[in-house]
Amino acid sequence: MSIVLASASPRRLELLRSLGLTFVTRPSNIDEEAWQLDNPADLARELGLEKARAARRPDDSWVIGADTVVAIDDIVFGKPTDQAENRRMLQRLSGTEHSVYGSIALINGKTGIERCEVVHTLVQFHQLDEATLTYYLSTGDGMDKAGGYGIQGLGAIMVEAVRGCYDNVVGLSRSRLYHMLHHEGVLPPQERAHCAL
């Protein structure tokens, strides 16, 4: 059985490896900026599916597509284009709770079956002072990440609380992916359940 991850994200690769799966990566390289939807959850869903569709080949058993959308009041915060935009994003997130929508799309290359689920996590930021903001921006850590920060790295200094799945904020909910794959018969039953933790 061939499993393909339609992503080059080192964070998603690490999360998927922790499930004990054998897989290959095949980044889809779709134009995410071309997608404009009013609802952030719908945007995450469509981007996850589109990534999986773009990477799919007829002989693939399962292709996994994933996307992460950060939003406040349906205003989406994508990946910053420069440090000035990253600063504006973090200033807006400062002292507030925002939503992280993470999609997981599964497409069977042989049968064409498509399945996609969206996980919703709430993240509360500390009120950021200038010294913290300047320090984080100086590292460049947030430049390739939705919302302009990475919770699994130095971005953790800005986070006060997480309500929901932490992995979802990193880039891929292992728990949800496990149950989706288990439903499709890809992962064995309970003896592998510990992998999702």
TrEMBL record:
It comes from the Bacteria. Its EC number is 3.6.1.9. Pfam families: Maf. Belongs to the Maf family. YhdE subfamily. The record marks R11, T68, Q152 as: Important for substrate specificity. It catalyses: dTTP + H2O = dTMP + diphosphate + H(+); UTP + H2O = UMP + diphosphate + H(+). InterPro entries: ITPase-like_fam, Maf-like. Its main location: cytoplasm. GO terms for molecular function: nucleoside triphosphate diphosphatase activity. GO terms for biological process: nucleotide metabolic process. It is found in: Cytoplasm. It is an enzyme of class 3 (hydrolase). Nucleoside triphosphate pyrophosphatase that hydrolyzes dTTP and UTP. May have a dual role in cell division arrest and in preventing the incorporation of modified nucleotides into cellular nucleic acids. Keywords: Cytoplasm, Hydrolase, Nucleotide metabolism. The active site is at D67. SUPFAM superfamilies: ITPase-like. This is dTTP/UTP pyrophosphatase. One of its GO terms (cellular component) is cytoplasm. It comes from Desulfurispira natronophila. Gene3D superfamilies: 3.90.950.10.
